[in-house]
Amino acid sequence: MANNKAAVKDLISIELPVHIGFIMDGNGRWAGKRGLPRKFGHREGAKAFESIVKYCKNIGIPYISFYAFSTENWKRPKDEVDAIIDLFRKYIDDVRKHIDENVRVIFLGDKSVFDDELRRKMISLENDSKDFTAMTLLIAVNYGGRDEIVRATRNIAMQVKNNQLEVSSINEELFGNYLDTKGIPDVDLLIRPSGELRLSNFLIWQCAYAEFYYTDVLWPDFSPKELDKAILDYSKRVRRFGGV
Fold first, then answer.
1. pLDDT at 1
2. Is 103 in contact with 129 (CB distance < 8 Å)?
3. Residues 191-234: pLDDT tens digits?
4. Taking a C-beta distance cutoff of 8 angstroms, is the pair 232, 11 a contact?
5. Residue from 3, 4, 10, 25 carrying the catalytic annotation
6. Helix, strand, or coil (residue 64)
7. Class of domain 16-144+185-235
8. Is 25 labeled as catalytic in the residue annotation?
9. Is the pLDDT of residue 50 over 60?
């Protein structure tokens, strides 16, 4: 993998994105094309997730975010939801076995809906990895961008009500400190596979100036080679952030 880092950087003189976001889309369709239940697509998608996480760490991407399960995904069939949550539990246990890899893990979204055991595992992993510096991995579970903004607004409103915060002090920087991504740089490159051309309520505040990259490749087939294509495409973009 170390050679891949040199290959990408030597191919073209580029500045790698600091924060890449991934919408892991297409698992169900991947399974459907093969005549398999949708949960098998999620299993393959989990393998792609692990491969991309390792590759991003090796090429030196400091922050990566993954849309694993949205606030709207609870509407899916129960067996599919159960399969996704089971994969999530397994992933946390697997990370525990490799805690020495120096990767900080943050879970975005409302944890309150999960059972006590799973919630404790999530909080424990966040706490035990909070000082790790090799890379920061953000996983969005029971997450929605609108829900995140509403939760942040409620917290700010409560502080104003309790005279702990002045209305005049509310600005973008302060608001950002009430989001799940407090202290994390905004997304530079947002990647969505599977051919869909929408943000689907993912990090809508943090993606205000993100560069979007879409591909028809389904998530279980999204490989480091596909990520290289996205990064090289990103390197050709001119980011003006509203300027000239």
1. 44
2. yes
3. 999 999 999 999 999 999 999 999 999 999 999 999 999 999 99
4. yes
5. 25
6. strand
7. alpha beta
8. yes
9. yes
**At which residue do the structure tokens 């090289």 appear?**
232
Residue recorded with tokens 């159960």:
82
64 strand-pairing partners: 20, 137
Strand partners of residue 191: 22, 213
- Domain boundaries, given as residue ranges, for the chain: 16-144+185-235
Residue 131's SS3 state is: coil
- The per-residue pLDDT for range 73-97, each reduced to its tens digit, is 888 889 888 888 888 888 888 887 7
pTM of the model: 0.89
Kind of pairing, strands 211-214 and 63-70? Answer: unpaired
Copy the structure tokens of residue 242.
């509203």
CA–CA distance, 33 with 44 (Å, rounded to integer)? 13
Distances (CA, A) of 86 to 62, 93, 209: 28, 11, 34
- For residues 133 and 75, give the distance between their C-alpha atoms in angstroms, rounded to a whole number: 37
In the set 4, 58, 73, 155, the catalytic residue is 73
**d(Cα 185, Cα 63) in Å, to the nearest integer?**
8
Q: Is 79 a catalytic residue?
A: no
Distance of CA 113 to the CA centre of its chain: 19
Residue 78 one-letter amino acid: K
